[in-house]
Structures are given as structure tokens and as C-alpha cells.
Design brief:
The chain has helices spanning 18-41, 49-72, 116-129, and strands at residues 2-6, 11-15, 78-80, 84-92, 95-102, 107-109, 132-135. With 136 residues, the chain is of the alpha+beta class. A 4-stranded mixed beta sheet has the order 6-5-4-7, with helices on one face. The chain has a 3-stranded antiparallel beta sheet with strand order 1-2-3, with no helix packed on it.
Length: 136
């Protein structure tokens, strides 16, 4: 992961594979939704009704996750500083995870940095820009 701040344009450029991971997950979840629809449509009386209910539940949950990620997550590589609300710092299983909260309500997850020094550099960068840092 590489983060760069352009002072002239007031942009934060994030270079990671977030977009690739996002579209990969969306494609897999779409395949699950299509598969569950096909299994429900080809349901016969010989098959268990529990199996059809499980396929329906799996399809509905996959559809909910697709909608949630489409409406609440951001994958943009260039973020204007004026669009950033705050940086959220969470400690999960001993690792620090950073998330950018945007003013439109979406969040942009930052990949977990390789080292603690890299995490501190990112926090110092956001502090230098004047973005509030919230710890959870």
C-alpha cells in the first residue's frame, strides 16, 4: 500500500488493490446469487424443502452484502481532502486497521500496513493535513 498527498490539488492518492478485491468479491457473490436462483427454480418435490430454504437464504444474504458494499464502501484511488470526514483507527486482534470516513457516509478501508512505522507515517500524514483521527 502506498499513500501520497498532493498539496497543490489537495488530493490523497492511494495505491492498493482495493478495486480488484472489491470487484472479485462482487463477481463471486453474483455467481452465488445466480446459482441460488437456479437451484430454487429447479427445485423438485423429491428434494428437501430445507435445502431450498438454505439456497434462498444464501442468495438473499449474498444480495444484501452486494448492496451494502455498493452503497457504503468506496474504492476510489483519489480522494479530495475536503471529502474526508475523519480517519478511524481500530485495533483488531492486535493489529491497527485504518479506515477513511467520507462526508457522504461511505468508508474507504486502507489495507493493513506492513509495519507499525508505516501505520504511524499514515497517521502523521492525516494529522499534518488536519484531518481528525478517531480511535475505537
Amino acid at each position: 500500500m502506498y499513500i501520497e498527498y498532493n498539496e497543490q490539488e489537495k488530493l490523497i492518492k492511494i495505491k492498493d488493490n482495493q478495486k480488484l478485491h472489491f470487484f472479485g468479491a462482487i463477481i463471486l457473490l453474483t455467481i452465488i446469487v445466480i446459482s441460488s436462483i437456479l437451484n430454487i427454480l429447479h427445485f423438485t418435490e423429491n428434494q428437501s424443502e430445507i435445502l431450498a430454504a438454505l439456497w434462498a437464504l444464501t442468495g438473499i444474504l449474498s444480495l444484501i452484502v452486494i448492496i451494502y458494499h455498493s452503497l457504503r464502501k468506496s474504492i476510489s484511488k483519489n480522494i479530495n481532502v475536503h471529502d474526508i470526514d475523519r480517519l478511524i483507527q481500530k485495533k483488531v486482534f492486535g493489529q491497527i486497521r485504518l479506515t477513511i470516513k467520507l462526508k457522504n457516509g461511505k468508508t474507504r478501508n486502507l489495507r493493513t500496513p506492513n509495519s507499525e512505522s508505516q501505520t504511524l507515517e499514515i497517521i502523521k500524514l492525516f494529522d499534518k493535513i488536519g484531518i481528525t483521527i478517531k480511535q475505537k
